[in-house]
Amino acid sequence: MPTPVVLGALAVLLAGPLPWALSRWTGLRRTPAAAMVLWQSTALAAVLAALGAGLSLVTERLWEAPAGPGDVVVAALAGGVTVVVLARLLLSGHRTGTSLRRARRVHRERVDLVARVDGGVSVLEHDVPVAYCVPGMSGSRIVVSRSTLTRLAPAELDAVLEHERSHLRARHDLVLEAFTVLHLAFPRWVASAAARREVEVLVEVLADRAACRTGDRRALVSALVTLAGSTAPAGSLGSAGSSLAARVEVLRDRRAHPWQAGSVSVLAAAILALPTLLVVLPWLGGLA
User: Fold this and answer.
1) CA angle at 163 for the pair 162 and 164, rounded to the nearest 5°
2) pTM higher than 0.70 for the full model?
3) Which of 240, 214, 211 shows the shortest CA–CA distance to 225?
4) C-alpha angle 100/103/105, rounded to 5°?
5) pLDDT digit string (tens) for 59-69?
6) Contacts for 130 with CB less than 8 Å, ≥ 6 apart
């Protein structure tokens, strides 16, 4: 089967059906770091396959002498499709990034106007317990309400604050932004929203794990239950976050899963290597 056809089919598979299937594998959350690498590899491989399908078709048609008028037309169409795919990615990245950064900047400004700062944390006078962070290149904010301070025990509050600090340190906002860009760039009949939803859960699980390394696991679970139902503004990352029940289930699992982590990492490497090899090897063969 011609390489462009294989790459095209692979791009569709990696953008839709495979993310849908992976999202059903909830056991992946037990090894969140390896699972995140798998999701990122799948997304990057989908982009490589989509771009590589057009480039390989251009190469196949023009490098094989003699290239007739039909070959030139096919190559031009394939090149045009490749440019469109790349343009959609860049446009989606620009629109998503601009919108998120504007929303975060406006929210940080509003928080600074109405909140008091206590120990580097912005405290809002609000009766509903909330806790979230607002990322930013020029200064992030961790925001809690007065009700959060009064309803959480000291150990619970420490766990929640460490959860938010972990989001900021690991720049989970950039991870989520990348998956949003990919979802919006691909056509709806190809792209799967499952990837974005599952990555939202994984960044929360990773932040939960970070909070447990320095604090009390039971205190974090108790705090999450207290904060359940609270919402965070658009563009921010909240402790209540996504899929609270799933996160509590992962927190209760204290066992290590080295074999799963290793297997998932190998799978991630294989998924990324496949389109890379399909793109690179024909080019190397043509140069030989």
Assistant:
1) 90
2) yes
3) 240
4) 105
5) 776 666 566 77
6) 124, 143, 144, 145, 147, 148, 227, 230, 231, 232, 238, 240
